Amino acid sequence: MNICYTELLIDNVQIPDEEEFDDSITNIAERNEVHESESNDITLKDLLSNLALPIDSEKTSKFNINRRNIWDGARRAFLRKTYKATNRISVMFTDSSGNSEGAVDFGGPTREFLRLLMHYLQHSKLFEGPENRKTLSCDAQGMRNDEYYLAGQAMAVSLVHGGPAPNFVSPVLYQCLVSDAKHVHSSLGDVVDPETQDMLKEIENASSLENLQGLIQKHSTVLSIAGCFRPLKSLNDKRELLEDLINWYIVGRTVPSLVRLKEGLKTLGVLQAMEIHKHIFEEAFVWMEQEITTDTINGMFNIKFSPSGSNYRIQEEHIIGYWRDYLQDCEGK
């Protein structure tokens, strides 16, 4: 379930003064955040609210989006010279005939756009693997068009502008984002390509040095590309060989993609905040199964009551009571 962590409707945005606007996004993030070791009470919502401080509700960046081709519209908007991540997003959806579906955006179209955008990225060629444990792919066209940077930028924008979290990232990829990738431990289970998996399992199951050396010759092309083609003196050498191969597949071959993704995530100071608050941001990127409770549902809505003392207000208060009773009854079943 995707959760919007910040509400950035016009009336709710806190606008910094001119002096704050002169600061870089990075400095603003560093100034407003508290290191995890200094506070156990800070939440993801707190961090995202701080990152949202530079957003100027008086200025907008317009996105003309066709639901049938979300990525094309997003790319055009992000690459527009006038685009600024600190501007409020204004989305206009068009149908296949190019007719406008609405000119004014008070938050709903933006959240729908960001939800569709995160869904697109989750299933795009830029990532590979199970639906909720994606690792980076090595897509030449994506690198040529700098789409990994745009993907990172889109993730950062969605988080800070009130959209859903990109919580489809595998734990090992998340660690590569917030730590030095050279020190990230990966395992055979992180390798998603069937042919590569078969090769690794063959090497892992080699029962003799002769058998192992035969496999080295059989897979010499891949091993050479990975920088792992070397003579082995004992059967025990296969463990180190496997570690090097897995590390190459998960990290080594995707370094260019990872670098650009991280550059995109620097938008609005998100990556810097992630590096400081690794454990807090993990819930936004790594999918975790959570039980839906009454509090979960209630937390998804902000109640907009009519003026106090009005007839509408009295009716609304009754309705809210019934609504909460209904949720509690459902939870108790």
Layout of helices and strands, plus pairs?
Blueprint: H1 18-22, H2 25-32, H3 44-51, E1 56-66, H4 70-79, E2 87-94, H5 108-122, E3 127-128, E4 135-136, H6 140-144, H7 147-160, H8 171-178, H9 194-204, H10 209-218, H11 220-225, H12 237-250, H13 255-265, H14 270-276, H15 278-285, H16 294-298, H17 311-332
Parallel strand pairs: 1-2
Antiparallel strand pairs: 3-4
Summarize this structure as a short list of keywords or feature phrases.
333 residues; mainly alpha; two-stranded parallel ribbon; two-stranded antiparallel ribbon; 17 helices; 50% helix; elongated
Mean pLDDT: 85
Percent strand: 5-15%
- How big is the Rg? 24 Å
So how many helices? 17
The largest β sheet comes out as: 2 strands, parallel
**N to C succession of SSEs:** HHHEHEHEEHHHHHHHHHHHH
Number of strands: 4
Outline: elongated
C-alpha termini separation = 21 Å
Organism: Pleurodeles waltl
Protein name: HECT domain-containing protein
Domain HECT: 75-121
Keywords: Transferase, Ubl conjugation pathway
